[in-house]
Design a protein that fits this description.
The structure is a homodimer.
Chain A lengths: L1 H10 L1 E3 L3 E3 L7 E2 L1 H15 L6 E5 L3 H12 L3 E7 L8 E8 L4 E8 L8 E9 L3 H13 L2 E11 L4 H7 L4 E11 L3 E4 L2
Parallel strand pairs in A: 4-5, 4-8, 8-9, 9-10
Antiparallel strand pairs in A: 1-2, 5-7, 6-7, 10-11
Chain lengths: ~190, ~190
């Protein structure tokens, strides 16, 4: 999505270790009209699917998912990150290992909000090693819900998450696909 | 707001210790069309004010703030909760003591996103002891930004937060004001 690539080039800041900060519009300050445009694109990509719920994970996914759920006319669900092992029986739960932060946590979702009747579109701000997204797919599997695919704002193609998840037969649509970046050389998008 | 009180009575579940769960529409599953109606009411209450930013705190505040920021046509900012003491110099930071969870944390906000030029509407899902809201007010003070008030979805009037903050001369508008609740007796709203 050209508009998003331009926004990333204008406002994104690349740090050593291939870290991209996009806090000016995506995950600290939210550029609401811009997010609506991203949602419109996700809707165009998945509008053939009979989506009943949009599912994301706290925190940054919420502002991505809100306008998508609004566009589809369905509820937004967000899984919660839980660092304690003390989980209620009324929750689905999946363990996520975050390589970036060097720790693991559970993503949890109350059973009453997702069932075998649901058709789910997953959304998130970033896709890198794919562990968070795999956690969401796991939660849907526990619910017996059908996953139509994942809508991602920024995919780091140089990490393995996108490949792994597509190899499982799950459709992944990323609006910007970064093949390389560094503080000096800038950002290179997949063509 | 009658519509909100009815929704709380229909879908809210009261647990011992005056805990209200409203995960079906406010802070786990998000009822997006309903949130738009709350945003419309916040807009009606604060539309005279020259709001330049809507500020909330992760996580649950994001879905409350998104449609409010959209309605005002301004960016949504969310402060991040930080449990580590290791803060960057480019952030405002305020310590928040959570009596509910028996711990303290910092709320942080990058300086570049809030300045003395800004006029801020604060929003959050709950107001109870008021500590999170006081943290946000503190961040605005550090930025030299003007606070026009706070828009709260549900205020627990039997806790002291609302009184404390109003006594500081800050306008607080809560769409539902709960004076008492318990699992047997149900929920009583302020008239």
């Amino acid at each position: 999505m050209k508009l998003l690539e331009e926004k990333i080039l204008q406002e994104g800041v690349v740090y050593p270790g291939k870290v991209l900060k996009v806090g000016s519009f995506l995950n600290h300050q939210i550029d609401v009209p811009f997010m609506s445009k991203l949602a419109e694109e996700f809707y165009r990509l998945f509008e053939e699917d009979p989506v009943t719920k949009v599912l994301t994970v706290e925190t940054s996914g919420i502002a991505v998912g809100y306008p998508v759920a609004e566009r589809f006319g369905v509820p937004l669900l967000f899984a919660k990150k839980n660092r304690s092992a003390n989980l209620a029986n009324d929750c689905y739960s999946a363990n996520v290992v975050s390589y970036t932060h060097g720790r693991s946590y559970d993503v949890v979702l109350e059973r009453q909000f997702l069932t075998g009747e649901d058709t789910v579109l997953l959304v998130d701000d970033f896709l890198a090693n794919g562990c968070a997204l795999e956690g969401l797919i796991d939660l849907c599997g526990q619910a017996g819900a059908r996953v139509v695919g994942a809508g991602i704002v920024i995919e780091k193609v140089f990490q393995e998450g996108g490949r792994k998840i597509r190899e499982r037969g799950i459709r992944v649509e990323s609006l910007a696909r970064i093949v390389d970046m560094d503080p000096e050389g800038g950002i290179t998008f997949a063509s």
